[in-house]
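re: ur question from the group chat, yeah i did fold both. here u go
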Amino acid sequence: MKEFIQTLKNIWSLKELRDKIVLTLLLVLVYRFASYVSLPAINTAEVGNLLQHYKNQGGNQQGAGLLGLLSSFTGGAFSRASVMALGIMPYISASIIVQLMGMAIPYLQKLQKDGESGRNTLNQITRWLTIAVCLVQAPSYLTSVTQFFLPYSQFASAYYIDPNSVMFWLPSIIILVAGSVFAMWLGEKITDKGIGNGISILIMVGILADLPTAFYQEVLTQNGKGGLGSIMILVEIIFWLLVVLLAIVLSVAVRKIPIQYVSRAQARGGVSRNLMDGARQWIPLKVNAAGVMPIIFAQALMFVPGLLTKVDESNTFLAGFKNVFSWQYNVLFALLIIIFSFFYTAITIPVNQMADDLKRNGGLIPKVRPGKETADYLDDILSKITLPGAIFLSIFAVLPAVVHGAFVQTDRFALFFGGTSLLIMVGVILDTVQQINTYLLNHHYDGLMQSKLSRSSNL
């Protein structure tokens, strides 16, 4: 405990690091404040009553899980009809589109190789594409807020302006687009001037904002059962901490490939020293190299099967795809995650380029020839470790449905037992802590996660 307190003092003593952390916290506070500013034409109090009435009518079992999932990424702004209702997700969608288009469009491939100038151009393309995505998502969101609840005539006071009029739609669309662009600007400012990846931090903050309320609702529900409720709450907390620990292991697990670098004199053949005199390093291949991207891709596609219910609303099998806790939804979800894990890993880890770079810099893998054999070796190892990584990732993704059916009573709290929410939280926290550690180690301080074991291994 003393070492942890000393580490906090070290962080505060570094002016540059302290200023970055303070700025990050202030921008996050602005983002959270903006998420409570409602659209001018909507009475948020009545919208809250609408949502509660919808749940009481059985909507919670027929798709509120999807709405709750979307709301969790925006810290509740989605369900509050806030100016930040779209949140940062349009930017994430635009980034994914640009990344995938980079595989097929030569111009984008050239920009990816042009260094800083190419990266700036790609960022500008992503920003404009974000606005285009917002122009599609904003009307869809307003449709869900208006047409979805219009049948409940007793809640007509939820709208200050006729929801079918141009005076409602045009300003609301402009405000929603502006809110999403503002969130994008905040994220980029955090990345440039603050600490950590700003976009990821805003998503994490939105997710964490819903955790206290979700836990409180779970406590109330469990306590309604009597004395057994307190025991179940304790069991849930212990199990949740175990899941968090396993998520950390999945995020940091790597397979180290030993690399032997030949010295320049050895490369020229001027000396006859043993090859092992060269510098030895490692290539760390992550078990879950794709991160949460397979879940995000699969999540985007999982809205499609739910639309099929409109073709045949009486089909109970198809209706299951609208519920994130149904077995139909989760079986398809897990299969898509495994497929996308291999797909995303294949396009983001260029083994041929890695083999060429090793050969160019005088590096080699022991007992493996440089060039094509090295690329085939890396590809084989990557395929072997991606399979268990993809399986574990799919297990984490469907875990909320498992615990919801086993012992967790509320939907909102069950979503924190895995899936995108938990992995994003763990990944962002680890990345931010790593950046803080870098600042501390550069000033000869121990990092937040520095252990005696790691210190002894560096000796």
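okk and heres the other one u asked abt
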Amino acid sequence: MVRVGRAIGIGAAAAAAAGAAAAGVAADRAAADRRRLDALDPHVDFRHTPDVELVVVATDSVKLHVEVDTPDSWNVRQPTVVLSHGFCLSIPSWIFQRRALLDAGYRVVTWDQRSHGRSDVSDAEHSTIEQLGQDLRAVIDSACPEGPLVLVGHSMGGMTTMSLVRHHADLVRERVMAVAFIATSANGEGLTDLGFGPLVGRAIGQAGPRLLSRLAPHQRWLGPVRRFGKTVEDSVVDRFSYDSPVSEKLVRFTSDLILATPFEVMAAFIPAIKGMDEYESLTALVDKEVLVVNGEGDLLTPPKHSAAIVERLPGSEHVVVRDAGHLIMLEHPELVNGQLLDLISRAAVDLELGVAAGAKPRVRRFITDIARGRRVRGVRRDEAAERSQERAAKAARTKVKRAGSTRRRRRS
């Protein structure tokens, strides 16, 4: 019996080793493909210097990091766009949107949600969606206390927006002209399935917080491990963040953002997200211009969650993007930028004409990012042509070398 158990153990270890090796090979191939796609965004700089940095103190004394960018041409009668990032992300995840909005002449406020980025880490008691809504109110009161507002939330940031709407309906009624929900949900059911289905996903969701809490004291030792397992790590991040080919540069940027989040923070917020239900909050937005955007291949907040939001907002515009995952604002930035600018324009027209968004028909559109697809095909075509030229040159060198060898043999 002992021998059998030992044999099974050895077999399991061998299978695990083989699986790890296979995963490593697959990750290496994926990494090579992403490196070739770096030509998609060769000049991308993810850094941004804000006009103003603020420290906003939340209701429980947690200090929140806030950044404000104001174009020279902006005035207080124009809208301020407030961007709220998602779970395990931070301000830099909005880099493409804040630049586009600034270029269009809008003031932009970005902030690190509590326990993320440069904001203070919260205690577990206040790691809730309700508290995040109160935090957003504090940010608005400090960074943009007057003038019209456009609220944009990605993933957990969308939940934060819903919480604000529920607790501060007066602010929404008086100042909010438009809201955008990007890859988010109004209910936490099924959000921890991670695309594995309810059975496996439920086990991951239940074990996740406990496992992360146990790993938290050892997180500082994972730096060297991350460096050695970078290609596997990138492949995991790529799978759950994107649904189309992206560059290694973008995946590495994403990995660094996500894994900068302490494990104890992940463990604290997972139960809050799972237990969230903000459907009733949406009733306060019935007469507001609302945009709902989701990726068709989003594994973390599947499309059905966006559809459930749209069902409760009769005048909303629902945009489903093909070949897009959870981090759609980084994967298809030009497309998302265009949708946000169109949203603000529609809201401005509504206000001018006195039209309530709830009186307009609901719109649902499926969009393919054709321009980006062309760039991907172009990069791969150029890379294939380069490889073909290299093979032809190598064949020519081999032919010359063989001819030389033949001549030397004949002389001898």
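fwiw on the second one: The radius of gyration is 25 Å. The mean pLDDT is 81. idk if thats what u expected
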